[in-house]
Each structure stands twice: as structure tokens, then as C-alpha cells.
Write a structure and sequence with these properties.
By secondary structure, this protein is mainly alpha-helical. The chain has one domain. The protein is about 80% helix and about 0% strand. The protein is built from two helices and no strands. It is elongated.
């Protein structure tokens, strides 16, 4: 698979990973409020949101790079 064909899949993977981490953080927050845990205290909900933000930044950088490459092809 070439670089140009792999990039859209890679940034989608980071976006879906970030969304999954946010959902997990919300579930963990609700579970902690009720006295339970989902991830067995490995990560607090705030830390999961931090990881989601990191993945979203990487995804946006990949998307901007893809946009830049498409604009360069047109000129």
C-alpha cells in the first residue's frame, strides 16, 4: 500500500481511537461515581481524555498534511 493511500486510513484510525478513548473516559467517570471501575484504576478518566487529545492532534496533523499534498498536486 502506498503512502498516499495509507494516510486517510491512518488519520481515521487516530480519530476513531480518540473517540473511543473519550467514550471510555465517560463510562469510567460514571462507573467511578457509582463506586465501580472499568479499567481497574490503571488510568483515571482525565488521563484518558488527555490520550484522546493527543490522538486528535496527531489526526489533525495527518489530515492537514494530506490537504497540503492535494493542494500541491493541483498547482
Amino acid at each position: 500500500m502506498s503512502y498516499d493511500r495509507a494516510m486517510p486510513y491512518l488519520y481515521r484510525l487516530f480519530i476513531f481511537g480518540a473517540l473511543a478513548l473519550v467514550v471510555l473516559a465517560v463510562i469510567e467517570f460514571v462507573a467511578n461515581a457509582n463506586g465501580y471501575t472499568v479499567v481497574h484504576e490503571a488510568y483515571r478518566p482525565g488521563r484518558l481524555v488527555e490520550f484522546a487529545a493527543m490522538a486528535a492532534v496527531i489526526a489533525s496533523a495527518l489530515l492537514l498534511r494530506q490537504i497540503r499534498d492535494e493542494l500541491r498536486k493541483k498547482t
